[in-house]
Every structure is written in structure tokens, then in C-alpha cells.
Amino acid sequence: MELNSFLLMRHELSLLAVILILLIAEIFISPGRKKHIVSIAIVLFGLHSISGFFPLADSELFGGMFRSNELIHFFKNVLNLGVLILLLQSADWIKEKMTDKERGTEFFILLFASLFGMYFMISAGDFLMFYIGLELSTLPIAALAAFEVMKRKSSEAGIKLILSAAMASGVSLFGISMLYATAGSIYFDEILLNISASHLTLLGFLLFFAGLAFKISLVPFHFWTADVYEGAPISIASYLSVISKGAAVFILMILLFTVLKPLMHIWENLIYVLALATMFTGNLFALRQENMKRFLAFSSIAQAGFILLGLITGTQLGTATVVYFVTIYISSNLAAFGVVQAISSQTGRENMKDYEGLYRTNPKLSLVMMLALFSLAGIPPVAGFFGKFFLFTAAASQGYYLLVFLAVVNVTISLYYYLLVIRAMFLRRGDDPIPFFKNKVYMRIGIVLTVIGILVLGLYSPLYDYIYELSGILK
Questions:
Q1: What's the mean pLDDT in 393-397?
Q2: What's the pLDDT at 473?
Q3: pLDDT at residue 113, rounded to an integer
Q4: What pLDDT does residue 4 have?
Q5: What is the pLDDT of residues 294-315, one digit of tens each?
Q6: Are 46 and 88 in contact (CB under 8 A)?
Q7: Which domain does 241 fall in, by range?
Q8: Most CB within 10 Å of its CB: which of 169, 411, 412, 414?
């Protein structure tokens, strides 16, 4: 294979170079200066993210196992920007609490290794590459969920995640073996030509789908989500909520709209039921939450249900709306998690009751949280409104009017519990309000970027048009 062929894997090779440089830095930087690794990692990943915006030709490598096109290239850039914002929001926590324990570099290496696996997963051209990417993206996150080893809940989160992921991975692999048995190949293009709606194929599809449903936190595969989010470091809960879920949604969309399109009469009914169950379960359980991480966990489950409205269509419009919504969702959820992390890092408080009177002491953070929650709820004119509007439009275009109506009901429910947080911040006077504090530079930059995304992405209509044009690749 020529060098030019390997350069088509620019995202993967660039991120691998970042990981290797961090390993070398860990060896040669003295213990007293390890805090500099945080800045080094952010700068290197920033350069990696910038390099992703240079044009990249469509390609297939390793006999079709790895492939890339403009849509995949765009989505990798979206994931890069999301991780970059997450790193900025996590920088102070890593400097103050992890580098002294000599675990700062490990955090970045594990996080980048997980992202590395996601690159391969969404670029997979066969089930072998898909499974390798799935495992590589999951195992480092299990270690990161248990990263705060002195906290019992963090250890529990790591154990629950690795056991649940192992079960989901095994079930998914068993399903893949059944699809291979019926289609005679693990390559997506060949499976598309040979797949049939036999009983073994349907069972294999259901088992395979269950593995990805676990990563997306679809009901009934969501039971791990709230416990893991609560116990894991906030930055890892944020990563699971947006980056991991976004990558899983993207590859599921590609497989449903291309390889598994002949089974659409089967999986559209399945997605219909799961969309309703996921929306109602996430929203109704979010009403009862007091811990902000558990609150955002059930919120993310409900958002996964809304995403299914785009997946059920199987059309170019559905593809565009899913990618557009995930892009907006990353900005909105990172903004909410960023405020939670800022407050937790300064005060250690994570309950909704602690936010009472926050506007009087920290008005800027309160406004950011309000924008984030309005975007998640789908209130105009912020970006989340346009994301949900296009999802509803895609579902309605295929005649799913009842599903759209019930989704609107769920929007109303979600607005109620998002307003509970806003009421606590703006209308309540807490007995012990969070004192005023000033975030450091990295956190401020990270939060500002999310606010820009919330305000600009919805109003910048050419972005949706661009995504819609790219979505024609999946026809």
C-alpha cells in the first residue's frame, strides 16, 4: 500500500501522533511540571481538529474494510470539536486534581484512544472493522468512568459500565455472526446484495441492534446510564452523553439506511416503539431527579428517543436531520454539562437544590444554563428548536403523524422539568446559595464556544443545507 493511501486516514494518523507525543511528554517532563501536559494536549488536539477541515478525497482502504466520504469526514470534524470543547471544560479539573496524582496524561490517552476507536467504527466498511472500533471506543471509557478511584461511586460506575458493555458487545457480536451466516460475508456492500428477511437474519439483526441501542441508551437498554453518569467524572459523563452517543447514532444510521435497508419494513416498526418508550421513559424519570448528573442522564435518554424520529424515515431528509440534530445536541449538552462541571469543581455541589439563587451570585453561568436547557427543550430561537423541528418534519413527511404528536407531548414534558432548574436559578432564594466565583481561562473558552454553537447553529441555515447535500451520499 502506498503512502498516499495511508494519508487518506488523516484523522486516525493525526490522532495517533497526538497520543504518541503525549506518551513521550509523560516520560520526559519532570513530575513538578506535569501540569503543562494539559496545555500540550489541548494545543495538539486543537491542531488535530483544525487539520480535519482540509479537504479529503473519498476513499476505500484494506479491501473495503475502511472507507471515508464527505459525510463521514464532516462528522469526524463534529466529534473533534465536541471533544475539544470537553477538554477545555475539563482542563482545570485535570490540573488541580489529576496531575498531582500522576494521572493527567492517562486521562488524555484513554480519551483519545476511545475517540480513535470511534473513527474506525464510523468509517467501517465491514463488521470486523466495526467491531474493532466499537471495542476500542468502549474499553477506555470504562476505565475513565472509574478514574476517581478514591470515590466509591466512581468505582461502581466503572464496574457497571464494563459489565454492561461486555454483555452488549457479546450480544452484538452474536448477532453479527448470524448476519454473516445468512449473507455469507461481513462486508457491508455484499451483505446488501444477499440479505433476506429470514428468521435467522431477523434474529441476528435484533441482537446486533441491541448492542448499539446500549451505547445510545435506548429503552430498555438504558438502565446503566443514570448510575454511570452520576458516578463518573462529569467530563466523562459529558463524553458518554454526546460524543459516544453521537458516534453510535451515526453508524447505526448508515447501516440502517444502506446495508439493512431491505429490512426496513421490520426495523421501522421496532424504531417506532423504541422512540415512544425512550422519550416517555427519559422524560418521566427526569421529573424525579435531584442530582444534576442523573437529571442530564435521563434528559439524554429522552433526546435519544427524539433522534429516532429521523432514523425511522430511511430517507436523505432523515439523514440530514439526524446529523444536524446531533451537531446541535453536542453544543447544547456540553453547555449544560460545562456549567455543572464549573460549579462542581468550585463548590462540590451537584444537586438541583444547590442551584437556588444562582442568578444572584453567578448570573453569567445561569444564563448559559438557561440557553442550554432551552435548546435541549426545543424553544425558539435557539438551535435546539430547529433541530427538533427538522426531526418532526422528517417523520411527518413519511406519514408518522401520531408519532410526531406524541413527540410534541414529550417536548412539553421536557420543558416542564427543564423549567424546574431555571426556576431554581432565577426565582428561588437558597438558604446557602453558591458563592460568586470566576472560572479560569480554559473553562470560559469552552463555555463560550458552546454558547456560540447554541446561538449560531440554529440561525445559520446554510449549515443544514450543506449537511443535506452531503446526505445524498447514502442514497
A1: 89
A2: 67
A3: 92
A4: 66
A5: 999 999 999 999 999 988 887 8
A6: no
A7: 3-474
A8: 414
pLDDT, tens digit, 9 for 90 and up, residues 407-436 = 999 999 999 989 999 998 888 887 778 888
**3-state SS record for the chain:** CCHHHHHCCHHHHHHHHHHHHHHHHHHHCCHHHCCHHHHHHHHHHHHHHHHCCCCCCCEEEHHHCEEECHHHHHHHHHHHHHHHHHHHHHHHHHHHHHHHHCCHHHHHHHHHHHHHHHHHHHCECEHHHHHHHHHHHHHHHHHHHCCCCCCHHHHHHHHHHHHHHHHHHHHHHHHHHHHHHHHCCCEHHHHHHHCCCCHHHHHHHHHHHHHHHHHHCCCCCCCCHHHHHHHCCHHHHHHHHHHHHHHHHHHHHHHHHHHCHHHHHHHHHHHHHHHHHHHHHHHHHHCCCCEHHHHHHHHHHHHHHHHHHHHCCCCHHHHHHHHHHHHHHHHHHHHHHHHHHHHHHHHCCCEHHHHCCHHHHCHHHHHHHHHHHHHHHCCCCCHHHHHHHHHHHHHHHCCCHHHHHHHHHHHHHHHHHHHHHHHHHHCCCCCCCCCCCCCCHHHHHHHHHHHHHHHHHHHCHHHHHHHHHHHHHHC
Q: How many residues does the chain have?
A: 475
